[in-house]
Amino acid sequence: MGIFDFFKKQEKAVPEEFSLKWLEVDMHSHLIPGIDDGAKTLEDSVSLIKRLKSFGLRKIITTPHIMSEYYRNTPEIIRKGLKEVRFALEKEGIDIHIEAAAEYYIDEVFYEKIESGEELLTIKDNYVLVETGFINKPQIILELFFAMEMNGYRPILAHPERYHYLIHDEKLLQDLFDREIYFQINLLSLTGFYSKPVKHFAELLIDENRVKLMGTDCHNHRYLDMLESLNQSKYFAKIQKLDLLNRTL
């Protein structure tokens, strides 16, 4: 080996530019300002959306929390916020399609909304994004999913890889598989952003071909900073080949 060959070998490969163009649509984020734990100001919203657009996304469906205890948002509040965000984006010349749905917290109040026929914000047609607490299993989860389906809704379980109870409850996990509940994985889970167990469970769900959707779950720039390391994940190439529903939204 010559001396020049040695130095060539020491050169670091130039990292590929991070892109989410393959995903096309981000269907989980918190970008309407001041109504949950996501973007705090309209300026934050515009800055985050501009950055997401730079990743190659063609569309964003932002999903503010609706939680009876903390974020008592309504379709009217969310639509008003979306209108303000769209106006600000237009003013800044940022051309990206943005819509809004919601991330509903599973509890008795949400169950009553379903039973009473109250309007739910959906992700294309009848898809509804739902979440639970991270530690304890909601006792009504299967009953609630059945009620949603009977009322014409298709539940999407947000970031199941983050639920500690689900990691350890094989029976419930199999019940959800049998019910064909759609699973949405957070891209950040594959970076180790939340924890190693969350990362490993996300990888397992991908390996078992159980993931139907993926999202950024973007709340702030710290999320996007970490997201830019996703192309270092050994699963980055694999998730780009998944038959995800994102591209149909």
The named CATH superfamily: Metal-dependent hydrolases
Note the run of SSEs as H and E: HEHEEHEEHEHEHHEHEHH
Runs in which pLDDT lies below 50 for 5 or more consecutive residues are 6-15
Shape, principal axes of CA atoms: globular
**What is the CA-atom radius of gyration, in angstroms?**
19 Å
| Class by alpha and beta content | alpha/beta
Number of domains: 1
Mean pLDDT: 94
The CATH architecture assignment turns out to be Alpha-Beta Barrel
Helix percent reads 25-40%
Largest sheet, in brief, is: 6 strands, parallel
Task: Count all strands and give the number.
Answer: 9
Number of helices, counting only DSSP H or I runs of 4 residues or more: 10
What is the class in the CATH system? Alpha Beta
Strand order in space, largest sheet: 3-5-6-7-8-9
Give the terminus-to-terminus CA distance. 54 Å
